[in-house]
Design the sequence.
């Protein structure tokens, strides 16, 4: 599998990989403003790195937001049909 990333998301992912060991939970943030179409996980769900967790509609396109860590979903901060702004925290994952 592969991901297409913006320079900012690549920089953030690299930063999280370096500093991620300090924190045991990771926040999945909205990469762009949009509307939540579907949430594919719930609190307590186990997720693997690269697994899709949210469908976000932005500019009439549906984007799958994938987890960049493996672990257990600690909290879901959004619900279906919510609007989110760039960098809003959508899900927190406890690294496992």
Sequence:
């Amino acid at each position: 599998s592969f991901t297409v990333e913006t320079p900012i998301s690549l920089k953030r992912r690299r930063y999280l990989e370096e500093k991620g060991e300090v924190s045991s939970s990771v926040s999945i943030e909205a990469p762009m403003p949009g509307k939540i179409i579907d949430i594919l996980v719930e609190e307590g769900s186990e997720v693997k790195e690269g697994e899709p967790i949210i469908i976000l509609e932005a500019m009439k396109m549906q984007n799958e937001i994938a987890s960049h860590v493996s672990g257990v979903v600690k909290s879901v901060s959004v619900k279906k049909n919510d609007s989110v702004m760039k960098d809003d925290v959508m899900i927190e994952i406890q690294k496992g």
User: Anything to note?
Assistant: Strands lie at 25-29, 34-39, 46-47, 52-58, 61-66, 71-76, 83-84, 89-95. Helices lie at 7-19.
